[in-house]
UniProtKB/TrEMBL annotation:
Coiled coil: none annotated. The keyword Flavoprotein does not apply. The lineage of its organism: Bacteria, Bacillati, Bacillota, Clostridia, Neomoorellales. One of its GO terms (biological process) is transmembrane transport. Pfam families: DctP (PF03480). InterPro entries: DctP_fam, TRAP_DctP, TRAP_DctP_sf. This is C4-dicarboxylate ABC transporter. GO terms for cellular component: outer membrane-bounded periplasmic space. It comes from Calderihabitans maritimus.
Amino acid sequence: MINMESEKKIRIGIFWLVCVLVVLSLGGCSSRARDMEQVSKEERIVIRFSHVVAESTPKGRAAKRFALLVNERTNGRVEVQVYPNSRLYKDGEEFKALLEGNVQLIAPATAKLTEWFPEWALFDLPFLFESYEEVHRAMDGEIGRRLSDLLLKRNMMALAMWDNGFKQVSANRPLLWPQDFASLTFRIMPSKVLEAQFAQLGAKTVAMPFNEVYSALESGMVDGAENPPSNMLTKKFYEVQSHLTISNHGYLGYVVLTNRQFWESLPEDIRKVLEDTLREVTQWEREIAAQENEKDLELIKKSGKIQVHYLTEEQKKAWKEALQPVYRQMEEFIGKDLIEMARKL
Ligand code: LMR
């Protein structure tokens, strides 16, 4: 039977035990707080990462993952803030913001570099790549190096190349044969190759920012658009289009860009953490991109809101033949040697 005296001792014991636990946990918090606290606001490096797509896309997920890992691995010395959905800067504003130091990372589609760097339009050529492997051979090889070097001239650095995927094309009528495109108007990214691609099919184009595509399709300002399923699903393009053709006629990929001066001004240890983490996230992003697009295409089909057409071999052959002249038309713009290098891949 526990007497009063020992009960009192037990209570006092429990009281002190709780005190110790509280102090320890506060100590723990304070060490984390101390990390953040230790890292004064002045010391903390804030990296603003702006992009135009939804968070649940390959690029959106990779940007979030990068932010999480960097914040963790630098114990708060670096804070990566991600701004998706054109929330901070939309297409056409990102480059200026990067060069003026208002953002430190952007990841535009390669097509959006072509106004300044026509050589990057290589990635827009129709049916140039048949698989992600072929694209990666170009990106990670001599072609990628040559294209990245061009960016340095404008104080930008290519840190990584991420995938979205192969483009499909939608409109409000079935697009099965090349002649089905005649007299329609398509939204494109600002690329001379994409303009030539649709012109070769007898269609007109309007280059516009990504965040304006849905309303342009809904209002009928344009009749159709091309994008991988992950963008079509997350931006609900399938709700305002009645037909989708699975053509894999082009590739959509990204360059993770930074401002050269900013990057070179970073402490070496920090730059190493960022580069190592980016390499890791790039590999992860490339693994999930294909899966994400397959999954999103299934969700688009399940919606029952759009009719999905798969090209027959004969139809695909007709598209390739119809689009072949684009290569010759774009030789001077892109550079004949680059096109040859890519074809050999
Ligand atoms: C587009 O403008 O269609 C795409 O580049 C958007 C994106 O970043 O995937």
